[in-house]
Amino acid sequence: MRSTWDEIKNQIQSELPKNSFSLWINTISFLAKKDKTVELGCPNKFSRNWVMENYFDLIQDKLHKAGALHVDLVLQPNIPERKSPVPYCTPYNEQLMLPNIPGGRRNGKGRLNSSFTFDRFVVGRSNEFAYSASKALANGDSWNYHSLLMLANTGLGKSHLSQAVGHAILQENPRLRVFYVTAEDFTNEMISSLKNSRIDEFKNKYRRLCDVLLLEEIHFLSGKEKIQVELGYTLDTLANDNKKILFTSSIPPNDIPRMSKGLSSRICSGLFTTISKPDYDTRVKILTKKASDENIAVSEEIIHFLANRLKRDIRQMESALKYIAAKSKLLKAKIDLDLAKDVVACLVSGESSIMPEDIINLVSKYYKVDPEMLRSKSRKKVYAYPRNIYVFLCRRHTDETIANIAQTINRSHSTILYASEIVEHKIKTDQKMRHQIDFLSKKLMNMKG
To answer: Fewer CB near the terminus (10 Å): N or C of the chain?
Structure first.
């Protein structure tokens, strides 16, 4: 029967994507055939559950075709579940502070958001593989890759999954040293270490004292040659020691401007996944769960209305629900469809009436530059800054595709993503830029009349 199972795996391999087969089917082993029962072993409970839900019928059908017509298929984890799992540590009640990371955001401190766990992540067709790959990395038992790269635009859940990996690993083994850090914080920490003659301590921390590295926003490393070299050495050391590594980015490494081929190759050498915008059914599930989590009483009719109109990202859906709740509370108004329509009108109504040409003219006038210079190849800051603002406003206030926005200023798809990400990141800390964005956004809203 063992040889029969090996043959069945070969058949399934030709029918499934390579990544799916490697993660879920290839790791299943034949255990025993007892009377009318065939027992197969999965690496762990999560893997068993996933195979039961997604591949059980396929495996059973293959068994029947192989001649095992009157047998029951049983899947079980090879490694027994712990009888007394480590409790979810009380010191990490609100936010989980990671070990071996000195205090202060500027010198590498990282925290995990207590809400960003696997059980609070809504799974749909747009993120199913990213979710399963992240869980497999956290579980570790069946992981055949040394790293995972998640690609997604802002607001689609890649940070949630990244931090969920950290939570799951630390819940299983709190002694492991999990470093959650953005590429910007990694850069700042290295620069600080160089200035204070502590570079050896910095290298030792990430190369020898790290069991799991969760590195966010690697597109921030664009053009930072010395940082890229140091990170490359660090990744080699971690890979050689079979440590777990997870990267996130809004841009494929090969498309990040001024990213070394060596570092790009290292980052892409493991498994990679993408997360796209959620489809309608997933938006319904997200809105339903978010409303439940926030104790916002909205009807099914309102949920479906919001799912039909809010298509940008998860943050937009969260904002709409909070807006509805706040307006209902402050005005002492019932949450009904009319209230939901008013909120959606403020968030998305009429966005398509704003054209890229309107934005480029407004931005050019505000920053006192010739519109043609935004379309030029010049990288001078006086043109690059308003050009990035233009891209960000186009993505926020129009329904134009990234390709169309890129065409309006003679840029590539990846450059548009990078420009938008730069502004999205800077407005969190740059008050001047935030005020400029708010002012220009109001001007655009007035254009709609």
So the answer is: C
Task: Provide the sign of the torsion angle of the four alpha carbons 252, 254, 260, 264, taken in this order.
Answer: positive
Token pair for residue 293? 């989590």
Q: Which residues contact 5 (CB under 8 A, 6 or more apart)?
A: 30, 40
- Here the tokens at position 183 are 């590429």
d(CA 164, CA 180): 11
Q: What is the pTM of this model?
A: 0.61
pLDDT digits (tens, 9 = 90+) for 150-168: 998 888 899 999 999 999 9
b/e code 332-368 from CB counts within 10 Å (16+ = b): eeebeeebbeebbeebbeebeebebebbbebbbeebe
Q: Which domains does the chain have, with CATH numbers?
A: 2-77 (3.30.300.180), 94-275 (3.40.50.300), 280-349 (1.10.8.60), 352-447 (1.10.1750.10)
- For the chain, the helix, strand and coil percentages under 3-state DSSP, each to the nearest 5: 55, 10, 30
Nearest partner of 132 among 102, 179, 164, judged by Cα = 164
d(CA 281, CA 258): 39
For residues 7 and 218, give the distance between their C-alpha atoms in angstroms, rounded to a whole number: 41
The vertex-17 CA angle with 11 and 18, nearest 5°, equals: 85
3-state secondary structure of 279: coil
The residue type of 119 is: D
- How many beta carbons lie within 10 A of that of residue 295, not counting itself? 7
Q: What are the per-10-residue average pLDDT scores of the chain (449 residues)?
A: 85 76 82 84 76 80 80 75 36 38 37 88 88 88 77 89 94 91 90 90 90 92 90 91 91 86 88 87 90 88 88 87 90 89 76 77 93 89 93 83 85 83 84 90 75
For tokens 């069946």, name the residue: 142
**8 A C-beta contact, residue 334 and residue 328:** yes
**Widest Cα–Cα separation across the chain:** 83
Digit-coded pLDDT (tens) for 308-343:
888 888 888 998 999 999 988 898 889 988 888 888
Question: What's the pLDDT tens digit per position in 393-427?
Answer: 988 877 677 878 888 998 887 788 888 888 888 88
* Whether 130 contacts 275, CB under 8 Å: yes
d(CA 75, CA 54): 13
Residue closest to 220 by CA, chosen among 169, 273, 184, 254: 184
251/326 Cα distance (integer angstroms): 35
Closest among 9, 78, 12 to 43, alpha carbons compared: 78
